[in-house]
């Protein structure tokens, strides 16, 4: 890797996005391990939702970094489409996380 | 270097999807075996509780499917980093939308079922207890004189 490569923002953005991907895989493995040990689906679902939200935050950071090197309308529109998709997914996971939190609270109070 | 990250991300996404596939396969197998056991149990008391047990199997399968759908949505999130063409982005958006809607309606159905019968409010860890409560009710019925 040369010095000019290190100054490419897209490379750093990819690095950040990859860290997010690793984080999600870590949460997924944790959920799988939890399922095998306790068979608690609610808790496993919550772990996956947490992982997805964390991963989406990392991906957003990476995408924001990529905006520095946007040059054409094609690139801008593509980025908008991917951002919109991620925003919808994030809203869903936040809704899901709140729902699971409510269910777990009910479980604790019962 | 960037290509390497994309390649690894696609491997990770495939791995997460494989886990989801395994969960769906095992959940379907478990539901099939349980349904078969109910179907084969021909006693009078078991017939009386057949509906309740069938509903429980359906809900349990629904919960596993919801979990698998979340895994698949996780894989979709990973794939958003490796979708270079408009066709791929469009296909990914359509698939993610279908999975999100499926998951949403599945959760709504589970919530409605829990509201109908609050005993199911603690869905997983108490599942053996719920089954055992049905079994004890069946046992009581069997002990009652005709």
DSSP, total strands of chain A: 0
- Number of contiguous helices of chain A: 4
Q: Which pair of protein chains has the largest interface, and what are the residue counts?
A: A-B, 46 and 42 residues
SSE order of chain A: HHHH
Oligomer: heterodimer
Strand share of the residues of chain B?
Answer: under 5%
* Main beta-sheet annotation of chain B: none
Bin the helical content of chain A.
Answer: over 70%
- Radius of gyration of chain B, rounded? 21 Å
Number of alpha- plus pi-helical segments of chain B:
5
| Share of β-strand residues of chain A | under 5%
Distance between the termini of chain A: 58 Å
Globular, elongated, flat, extended or rod-shaped: what is the shape of chain B? elongated
Give the structural class of chain A: mainly alpha
The low-confidence parts of chain B are 123-134
Uncertain residue ranges of chain A: none
Number of strands of chain B: 0
Radius of gyration of chain A: 18 Å
Give the total of domains of chain B.
Answer: 1
Organism (chain A): Thermosporothrix sp. COM3
Pfam families (chain A): DUF1622
Transmembrane segments (chain A): 6-35
Keywords (chain A): Membrane, Transmembrane, Transmembrane helix
Looking at this protein, list some descriptive labels:
heterodimer; A: 110 residues; mainly alpha; 4 helices; B: 146 residues; 5 helices
Account of the 3D structure:
The complex is a heterodimer of chains A (110) and B (146). With 110 residues, chain A is mainly α. Chain A has one domain. Helix content of chain A is 88%, strand content 0%. Chain A is built from 4 helices and no strands. In chain A, helix 2 (9-38) runs antiparallel to helix 3 (41-66) and helix 3 (41-66) packs antiparallel against helix 4. Chain A starts with a helix and ends with a helix. With 146 residues, chain B is mainly alpha-helical. Chain B has one domain (2-129). In chain B, 84% of the residues lie in helices and 0% in strands. In chain B, 25% of the residues are buried. The model of chain B is unreliable at 123-134 (pLDDT under 50). Chains A and B meet through helix 2, helix 3 and helix 4 of A and helix 1, helix 3 and helix 4 of B.
């Amino acid at each position: 890797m040369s010095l000019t490569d290190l100054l490419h923002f897209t490379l750093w953005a990819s690095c950040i996005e990859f860290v997010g991907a690793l984080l999600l895989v870590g949460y997924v493995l944790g959920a799988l391990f939890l399922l095998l040990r306790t068979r608690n689906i609610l808790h496993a679902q919550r772990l996956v939702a947490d992982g997805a939200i964390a991963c989406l935050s990392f991906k957003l950071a990476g995408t924001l970094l990529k905006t520095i090197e946007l040059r054409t309308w094609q690139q801008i529109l593509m980025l908008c489409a991917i951002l919109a998709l991620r925003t919808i997914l994030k809203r869903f996971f936040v809704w899901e996380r709140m729902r699971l939190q409510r269910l777990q609270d009910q479980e604790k109070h019962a | 270097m960037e290509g390497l990250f994309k390649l690894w991300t696609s491997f990770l996404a495939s791995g997460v999807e494989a886990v989801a596939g395994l969960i769906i396969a095992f959940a379907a197998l478990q539901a099939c075996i349980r349904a078969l056991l109910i179907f084969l149990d021909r006693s009078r008391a078991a017939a009386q509780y057949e509906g309740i047990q069938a509903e429980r199997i359906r809900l349990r399968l629904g919960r596993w499917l919801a979990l698998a759908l979340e895994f698949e949505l996780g894989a979709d999130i990973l794939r958003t980093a490796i979708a270079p063409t408009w066709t791929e982005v469009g296909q990914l958006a359509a698939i993610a939308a279908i999975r999100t809607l499926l998951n949403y309606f599945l959760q709504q159905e589970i919530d409605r079922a829990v509201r109908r019968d609050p005993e199911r409010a603690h869905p997983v860890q108490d599942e053996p207890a719920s089954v055992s409560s049905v079994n004890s009710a069946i046992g009581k019925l069997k002990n009652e004189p005709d």
